Each structure stands twice: as C-alpha cells, then as structure tokens.
Amino acid sequence: MSEHAEHTEHATNYVKVWAILLVLLMVSIAGPFLEIKIVTLVTAFGIAIVKAYMVAKNFMHLNIEPRYAVYLLTTMLVFMLLFFAGSAADVMKHEGTNWVKPFVHVEAQAPAHH
User: What is the pLDDT of residues 57-73, one digit of tens each?
Assistant: First the structure.
C-alpha cells in the first residue's frame, strides 16, 4: 500500500467531527430545558460519553495508536471508576457522626418547645 493510500485511509474530516460535536453540545444543553429527569440524564451523560469517544478517536488518534495505548487508557478508566466506587459512599452522605458537608445547606431543626 502506498504512503498516500495509507494516509487517506486514516484521514479524518476534522470540520465534520467538530460540527457533530457542536450539535451534540447543543442537544446536551437543550435537554435539561425539557425538565424530564431521564432526558436530562441521557443528554448529559450519554452524549458526554459519545463526545469523549469522538474526541479520543479523532483528535487524540487512539484508533491508529499502538494497541497498548488503548490498554493503558482502559486501565486508567477502570481505576478511576474503582476510586469513585470506593469513595462515593462516604462523599455522597448527607449526615453522620462528625460529618459536615460545608457545601450543602441543611437547615437545623430546632426542637419544638411547648
């Protein structure tokens, strides 16, 4: 295979990918305006995953990197998910002994006096 044929085989139309990313961005911004919880979640997280895949494939060129680069990326993602799963139970608690979340406003309930 000639060098030119090999280059055109992996050629990416960056403007087209950029336009698709912009459309997906608009959809993910418009989703919450419908005020439907499942639509908001799908447009926020589902589209974010698709956009991250497109950026990694087209702009980071992971599709033409050696196989070990994909394995390293996958390993990193697995460790990140394990870290989140291991710490989420503590970080997402709203109350507990000696537990204060300064960024969550909780009104103190005063005991009722009769």
Answer: 888 877 777 888 878 88
